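Quick one, T. Sequence first:
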Amino acid sequence: MTNRKLLGFLPGLVAGLTVAAALLAGGASAYHTNFQASCNNEYFNTSDVYRSQARSYAEQGAWEGYQWGGGCWNNNDVDDSPGDPPQDPNTRGEGPDCSGFTFKAWYERSDTSDAGFRYHYRMQNTHGPYVAESFKYGAGAPNTTVAKANAIMMDAFASAYHIGMVYQANTAYNTDRIIEAKCEACGTGIWSRTYRGNPDYGGARRVGWAG
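Structure tokens:
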């Protein structure tokens, strides 16, 4: 290659490599936030837990991120891992998914035969053994079903694909305020939902609350 051609070729090559590097860096930044590297495994067993305590615990997760298969979050009201590809636990982003959020907010234990209570720190990276459908059918010693008409604060509505907890019940109009980990794009929050009147959903309840 002549010097003249080389001089014309090099700037284009450099520009192309720069754009490629920027695209790769942007993709890596969105995909590999690795929020979970800061998570821990801290918990303690407890008893005499009230529904109001469970709701307060869940409130700390509201407005955080959503991570499919995830289990830890902080409480800065920001998704610290935005834009991760959905349904990929390898992104290791911030937030729970719907069943993991319920598991922790209901103070459940990983042993499905144990109905005792366990406090999970927000930053404890645990999901629990249940998926949404498990809760719908009352699987596990801590869980049972309940008629949707009788669902109250911190019961839940569960389908084969999603579960959301009752933050504020509104039986008159079947439009409850639900606290839930909803999706990667929308995160975790509190919204008005009509799950009570949706035939896909059944009522779910954690047994043993102190009140």
